[in-house]
Amino acid sequence: MIENSFLTFWASPQAVEYGKALSFRRPKVPMQDLHSLASIQNALKKIEKGGAAAAIVRIVLMIADTRTEVRGEKLERFNEVLTTWAPFKSMDPKERNFLIHDQTLIARFEMEAGYNALPLLLKNEKDKTFAYKAVTYIIGNEEDMAPNSLELWHCLKKTLKWG
Q1: HSE-up of 99 (CA within 13 Å, CB side)?
Q2: Which residues contact 46 (CB under 8 A, 6 or more apart)?
Q3: pTM above 0.85, yes or no
Q4: Tens digits of per-residue pLDDT, 80-131?
Q5: What is d(CA 47, CA 121) in angstroms, rounded to the nearest whole number?
C-alpha cells in the first residue's frame, strides 16, 4: 500500500516534470574524445610490452568483446588462470589489476593495433605455447563459441601460428 502510494505520487506527470529540472545526466562522450585521456595514452604506450601475460589477457578481452555476455564458467577459468597460474600468481594484486586495466583499454581503443602487436608479445615458442594453453583453457570448447568469437579465434590462431 505504501509502495503504491509512493509510486502513484512520484510517477505522476507533475512529479516527473518537477524531477527533470533536478535530474543530472552525464553527457555521452564520443570514443575519439576519450582516446586522448592520459590513462588511455599511457596504456597504448605499452601495446608492444608485457609478454605472454599481457597477450593472454588481451586475447581473452578481445574475444569477450565480440559478445554481449560471457558465461560464468569462462569467467571462473579466467579468474583461476589470473590467480593460480604463473606468471600471474606471483604478481602483486595491484600489478595484476594494472595489467588487466591496460589490456582492457588497448582492446577497446586500439583493437587492431593491439591485435597486430600480439606476435611481438609472444616472441618465443615457450611463450606461444603457454599463451595457447592458457587461452584455450579459458575459452573452452570451440563448439560453444558464438560465431563472431569463433571467427576472431580462428584469425588469432592463424596470426599466431597456433594449432
Answers
A1: 22
A2: 54, 102, 106
A3: no
A4: 999 999 999 999 999 999 999 999 999 999 999 999 999 999 999 999 999 9
A5: 9
